[in-house]
Amino acid sequence: MNIDGLNIDGHTRIFGLIGNPVGHTMSPVIHNTLASYYGHNLIYGAFPVADDPVKAVEGAYALGICGLNVTVPHKSAVIPTLVETDDFAFKIGAVNTLVRVDEKKGYKGYNTDMPGLYRALQQENIGIAGETVVILGAGGAARAVAMMTASKGAARVLVLNRTVSKAEAIVREITALYPDCRMYAGSIYDLSNLPDEKFLCIQATSTGMSPHVEQAVIENSAFYERIHTGFDLVYNPYDTKFMRLVRQAGGRAYNGLNMLLYQGVIAYELWNNMKVDEDAVSLVRRRLKEEMGL
Ligand code: NAP
Is the shortest distance between the CB of 217 and ligand 1 below 6 Å? Predict the structure, then answer.
């Protein structure tokens, strides 16, 4: 059977995403576009898994599924069933990509979210080493961003959150792992302890996501004047209020679409033991934007 250039037959390798909900995922666009571009005989679908992600992973292995992405709320819950976990994913305590390892009769877990963010930053020539970084939020994504920036040699990382105790917990944990990085926790409602120099700000709260497009986690214009580069993990809407406030104050601003794209590209590279070229990346970026109606 030929579907949109893909030949689905008895040799087709099957990949997919588990999570809840998965209805709005863009991962099938990423992986099926890459498969079609490279002529790989594989398909990628989404599996809604409400309960028992461990059983879902075991069942996927039994069914011969070659690889899985894992999204909220299962990124940590699947770890006990894995036969191996990549060092960085182990430190973060969350996996988003599982690679089948037949010799060990199970999956190895990776976290491609943070390498994806790092590649997205590199693509825009945004450096981390020696930088002062302010992270907004202290959820799962912010924690991983704090880990990534500390591991890439940021000089100073400030984690600001609505619930300060969560920011403090991240700072304690990451300081123990990366003592050379000076880390601070604070409140998004108290901006009196901001660094003197201009900083890179990574917006890792869910504020401003569609349909709440008129919200930004901090509205104070004085805060935005301190930002030389703002990176919002949110990509829907494409232009967030946080990004607009950064630009209005004279900084550069980026959304999280390239992070999403590169976490998928890195997963595809792990599954297929290859490097995805920039033409393929550009094609996927175009398809994602079409999917978003842009
Ligand atoms: P999460 O664990 O649920 O954390 C949510 C964070 O947002 C917490 O810090 C929370 O503060 C804060 N928050 C929520 N509503 C708020 C409000 N009204 N005012 C102030 N703070 C508020 O979520 P997550 O998994 O870390 O994800 C965070 C964002 O990153 C989401 O928008 C997600 O889509 C995005 N993301 C993007 C990518 C990508 O590929 N581009 C990848 C991962 C995540 P409290 O702790 O005080 O509740």
Answer: yes
